[in-house]
Amino acid sequence: MIDEKAMAEQQAQNTGRPRIKKRAFVPIAVIFLMGIAALGYWLSTGGKVSTDDAQVDGNLVPISSRVSGYVSNIAVEDNDEVGQGHLLVQLDQRDLIEKVAQQQADLATQRAQAASAAGQQSLIGQTAPAGAQQAGAAVLVAGSNMNAAQKQILSAQDQANSAEAAVEAARAAVAGAQADLESAAAQVTAAQASVKAAQADVGSAQAQAQKTAADAARYKTLTERGAASQQQLESAEAANTVAQENVTGARERVSSAQAALQQAQAHQRSAQTAVTQARARLASAKSAASQARNGVSLARTAYATAQAQLQQAVAAQSGATTAPQQLTVAEAQRKAALARLAQSEANLRGAKLQLSYTTINAPVDGVVSQKGVQLGQFVQPGEQLMSLVPLRDVWVTANFKETQITQMHTGQKAIVSVDTYPGRDFEGIVQSIGAATGAKFSLLPPENATGNFVKVVQRIPVKIVFTKRLPVDLRPGQSVIATVYVGGR
Known about the structure:
The chain is of the alpha+beta class and about 500 residues long. Among the domains are: about 60-90 and about 355-385, CATH 2.40.50.100; about 95-335, Helix Hairpins. The protein contains 5 helices and 14 strands. Helix 3 packs across helix 5 (about 325-355).
């Protein structure tokens, strides 16, 4: 058989031209086609990133009651579109209407009392000055007649004052001794509680020591049999040692608590003795004060004649000289009446406010959803009755891979395709990029330090808002495909 390779080389030598190897064209063609494919992919996807892990988001406005009451009217049904201020639910108003009427009546009463207090203050201010001048002159005359008689009782009064001071001092001593006795009793009670607590600790520590001793013995037997490790035996013996030390410490605390109890009981006995002595001194001081008061009574007998004249003058002056005090009292009464008036006005405003809460209106434009309230139902404050979904205030939350947001920033153009409306694109911009991945906000976030780490590409939520008014209503939860032009388009 003729060797084709040799023949080809011979032919090439004969013709003077090198032989072209056809097989060399195959890898070159493959590389060329791959380059064309890569260029086409880059031209079609370069400068933008997309994800189908995205959905329409929006506010879900909860509608709840601010007062308790029975539902008397429900003005909407599920999926009704309502405007801001539209009536949603009406609660029974009769109780609150009655409360408003009561507050209005109370307000009228307080206004009348405030007017009366103001008139009384004005009357006292007009009549008090003249009466005060006349009564003052009469008191001066009677006072000069009183000076001579008053000197006679000064000595007896000084003695009575000294005796009264002694009584007050004795009472203070009794109070101090009684307080010390009560403190000592409290210390005894606390010491008794400490003893009981320490004794309870001893029992608990002994029970724990018995358990740890049994565990140590069991582990020793298991170790000898080879069923437990030396480390387990040492741990059990260490726990037993600690438990035994705890028993010793608990017993020492019992001894210390008992010593404290004995000391507190000794203090209590001493305080009881001090109380008895202080009461005896108080009785003696009271006897001396009684004698001093008798001396004052005898001195005042001689003073009675002169005092009669002064009493007449003082009686005439009392009404006039108390005019400033009366005026002060009248001013205080007027201020108190005004304060009650202000409180009544506040109560009325509060009652009217509570009444207004029985009418529940829509806070925003939206669509009624999740209506759970029923006619005749008794609702509590804060109880959710339904939800409103503002369809005109929606956005897109797109969960891009962490490798897709390298060049992404706020303000970049975005295109949103909604599965509900195939073939239609909606324009938007990137408003914000999430501060953490979605996994970090999950109920059980991953913990990479557990030793079971597997690298997974994380996703970061990106908020996209629409730049034009939407021609259709998008509903929160709808699936979309979000594309962001990170190349500056």
